Amino acid sequence: MFERLGRFVVRRAWWVIAGWVLAAVAIVVTTPSLSDITSADQGSFLPRSYESVQAIELAKKAFPQQATATATIVIKRADGQPLTPADEARVGQLAQALKAKNISHTSGYLTGPQAVAPDKSVQVVNVGLDAVTPDDPALLDAVRDLRAAIGPELAGSGLTAGVAGDVASFVDNEDTFNKAFAVVGIATIILIIGLILIIFRSPIAALLPVLVIGVVMAVTSGLVAAAGKAFDLNVSQDLQTVLLIVLFGIGTDYILFLLFRYRERLRAGDDKRTAMMVSVERVGEVITSAAGAVIVAFLVLLLASLGFFGSLGPALAIAVAVMLVTSLTLIPAVVSLLGRYVFWPSKAWQRAPKATMARRLGTAIGRRPALVAAASGALLVALAAGSLAYKADYDFSSGFPQDTESAKAATDLQRGFAAGALAPTEVYLTTDNGSPLTEQQVTDFAAAAAGAPGVGRAQPPERSNDPSVARVNLLLDENPVSNEAITLVRDDLRDALHAAAPPGTRAVVGGPTAIFADINSANNRDLSVILPVAAGLIALILALLLRSLVAPIYLVIAVLLNFAATLGATVYLFQGLQDKPGITFQLPIILYLFVVAIGTDYNILMIARLREEAREGNEPHQAAAIGVEHAGPTVAAAGLILAGTFGVLMLAPISFLQQMGFAVAIGIVLSAFVMSMFFVPALTALIGHKAWWPGHGDERPVRGRHARPEPASVTKA
């Protein structure tokens, strides 16, 4: 099949390129924009079966006037002394003056005696922020306008103020985010061009992936948007960034797979057309299997209960499918026309390197496979042990710079009030049959809620326009997004509040802490489902590729061990050495996307080359040596580019970006340089012919019409 495909693409190269150009133009012109299917509505982030989602729906009906978000103005004396009655009166005047300015998208301006800290250190003014969606840019402008108005109103009063809250924090850190992602984008291009330039010493080879992936990105965006319209998919606004990273990751991998094999065939004496035909024949099955494994891994995300991942999976699967078609058609067509000029002006492609590092590594692995397998396996196990101490961290604010206005105001607020002042736990009391709540029921429940576990303070109950619903906001003693608070809500507080509901009523617990508690449960559930299913399906693809049942088993075990080792290494660094309270809760899924899914590519490339060398008649140890010699540089180059791209994130002054950058970078390094380069070849050499049981994957097949035996100088280590 791949022999025929290679022959067709090479002989009809101009037709293939023209077809691609016409198809790309048609897709870009006729499909909708990706922004048409993106959404910031997190209502579907969790299934409706979760209590926090039920609380959100109840709030929308019972308190329709509730603001989309909140900005909290925190006022204190400039000299650090307690607020005086005159100061409190001045804060009340501030609230009225700000309200009179009619700042767009703001409402409420609530303050009073209940807004004064018990120790008189601060007083707050709660401002509602109103917009269609929580990330409406108008909210950012509202906070900026609010800050601009506060200064003149407090001039000469001896009081200072800062605006805290999620929107204010985003305003303060917007430039940091933008700079971080700009650096990543630039670093990606520089790394890809720079490293390929070093490897092939050719500007043409270096620019080829960037130009091709740019076209593929445009085509993919159109196809994903069209699929989103057809199947009513709403995806996060992060999709564009994730698509770009995935396409550069796998696209560079697949292009390198082809270029390395093409150069090898040219060195073996093939003309430019035959070299590409043989390259597609030999590498086409590897690329297809690798892409199939990644597509399956992404589609398994459809099993996720978290809505974002369920819609992300199909979008990424489409991206990989487009890159697969590109790698088997457009890239071979372009390179077959360029021929040796793809490596211009370098002449290094004409001669096989002697005594290379890859050859020395291959020889060492072939001679001492037991030692190599034990050492590399022990390293992965030792790192994996760290994953047992993993704690999820939901506190994004602690990872931002702490010298901003919002961070300082939040610190002042938490010093004066209970720790949960910025993110109250919302408890809704409602009757079972829709009858009105009595005042006694509301009062009794509010008193019981105030004494519930972990509650530092209960705010006065609020009655809804719907007489069957009332709300009590609870300020927790713990940081509301800490693991302690999330565990408290999930394990103790909810049960206590449910039990405190008077007969004939029920309590529904919501708010940020409850949402994170449910996300924690959903995340654990998703990982327990996604990882085993993906492992099983990837094993099936490997079994079909290798016609074996033994090799897929230890390959999948290696991938899962690498996942655990990556998570463990991140825990050692951030929870251990840096004493962080935990690792960002999104990290396990991120590692699944970029380490398990994409990292599988390197395993497939290496095991396919080991099988190929076994088919050439080499015994297992020799096949491992030659396989590492020839596939090792490809794996190393691809892994280094992808790891370097993510590693740049460690320069960002934001904790969770640093964690993500380190984790994915170290995961790719372990995938490429430990698992694929050492562990898998050594283990395959040890197992020997039994690795291909029950098939005959290591037996010499009938050769394709264009295939040639490797010269002795190339095939001998």
TrEMBL record:
Region (Disordered): 698-717
Transmembrane segments annotated in the record for this chain: 12-34, 180-200, 207-227, 239-262, 283-309, 315-343, 369-390, 527-546, 553-573, 585-605, 635-656, 662-687
Keywords: Cell membrane, Membrane, Transmembrane, Transmembrane helix
Family note: Belongs to the resistance-nodulation-cell division (RND) (TC 2.A.6) family. MmpL subfamily.
Protein name in UniProt: RND superfamily putative drug exporter
Cell location: Cell membrane
Domain SSD: 206-337, 555-685
Keyword hit for tRNA processing: no
